[in-house]
């Protein structure tokens, strides 16, 4: 199985319609891959907070239409990154996954919103459901950017049957070392592939880390971008590798759930 990560450049000066068309062209060039992944919020920029409301789309909006057509034209499973979704409950950071037919196969609303008391954390509502996409032979757990810092989310995805995680991101250059370490940790601790796709370029005065990477269930780096230029990262995945490793080194079976947590100050 071939996976392709498109580390697309997000530039404030490029009209969104042009970037959609350019993304579709890049996807078409990956015809022959099985799975293609785009970054987080590439239509608007993950740090372009002032544009979230004006750039928001309904789920059936122009990005969905363009990406559905692109998936069908290329004949690939497409994780189309995420959009600012406008819903009755508010705005969401919403990922869309399409089957090779162009059918929408999975929708994930980002659970952990970044910003603490500003930005995404106050402008968007939080998702509440873990989601997997039914990629044949390699069930795909969905997470987005800041989710990477919360290992319990990935444990839940493993319990839901995920053998790989797709993590689109708009991760900033300032914390690029965290990105790489956390992506490899999520692979090792869950014995699952990690497909972590970052954004290239600079938007909203925030240089992006780029550094997309594909990690094997063993933690081995299969492919890694050296920086934040626009590029496509590719690797061959063996759908059986995660299950084989879990059988050979069954660490996940030693999980102990429900261990009592002492009250603060009860120890010492």
From TrEMBL:
<comment type="similarity">
    <text>Belongs to the carbon-nitrogen hydrolase superfamily. NIT1/NIT2 family.</text>
</comment>
<feature type="domain" description="CN hydrolase">
    <location>
        <begin position="1"/>
        <end position="239"/>
    </location>
</feature>
<dbReference type="InterPro" id="IPR001110">
    <property type="entry name" value="UPF0012_CS"/>
</dbReference>
<dbReference type="GO" id="GO:0016787">
    <property type="term" value="F:hydrolase activity"/>
</dbReference>
<dbReference type="InterPro" id="IPR003010">
    <property type="entry name" value="C-N_Hydrolase"/>
</dbReference>
<protein>
    <submittedName>
        <fullName>Carbon-nitrogen family hydrolase</fullName>
    </submittedName>
</protein>
<keyword id="KW-0378">Hydrolase</keyword>
<dbReference type="InterPro" id="IPR036526">
    <property type="entry name" value="C-N_Hydrolase_sf"/>
</dbReference>
<dbReference type="Pfam" id="PF00795">
    <property type="entry name" value="CN_hydrolase"/>
</dbReference>
């Amino acid at each position: 199985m071939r996976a392709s990560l498109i580390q697309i450049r997000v530039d404030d000066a490029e009209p969104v319609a042009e970037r959609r068309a350019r993304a579709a062209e890049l996807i078409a060039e990956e015809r022959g891959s099985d799975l293609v992944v785009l970054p987080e919020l590439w239509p608007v920029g993950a740090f372009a907070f002032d544009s979230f409301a004006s750039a928001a789309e309904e789920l059936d909006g122009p990005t969905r239409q363009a990406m559905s057509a692109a998936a069908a034209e290329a004949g690939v499973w497409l994780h189309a990154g995420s959009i600012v979704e406008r819903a009755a409950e508010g705005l969401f950071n919403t990922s869309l996954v399409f089957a090779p037919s162009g059918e929408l196969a999975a929708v994930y609303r980002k659970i952990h919103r970044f910003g603490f008391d500003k930005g995404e954390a106050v402008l968007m509502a939080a998702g509440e459901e873990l989601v997997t996409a039914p990629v044949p032979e390699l069930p795909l757990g969905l997470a987005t950017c800041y989710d990477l810092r919360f290992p319990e989310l990935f444990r839940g995805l493993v319990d839901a049957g995920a053998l790989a995680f797709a993590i689109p991101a708009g991760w900033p250059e300032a914390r690029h070392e965290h990105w790489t370490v956390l992506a490899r940790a999520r692979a090792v601790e869950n014995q699952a592939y990690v497909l972590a796709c970052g954004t290239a370029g600079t938007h909203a005065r925030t240089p992006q880390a780029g550094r997309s990477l594909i990690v094997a269930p063993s933690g081995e780096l299969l492919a890694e971008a050296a920086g934040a230029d626009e590029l496509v990262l590719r690797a061959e995945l063996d759908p059986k590798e995660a299950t084989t490793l879990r059988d050979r080194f069954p660490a996940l079976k030693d999980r102990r759930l429900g261990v009592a947590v002492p009250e603060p100050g009860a120890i010492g």
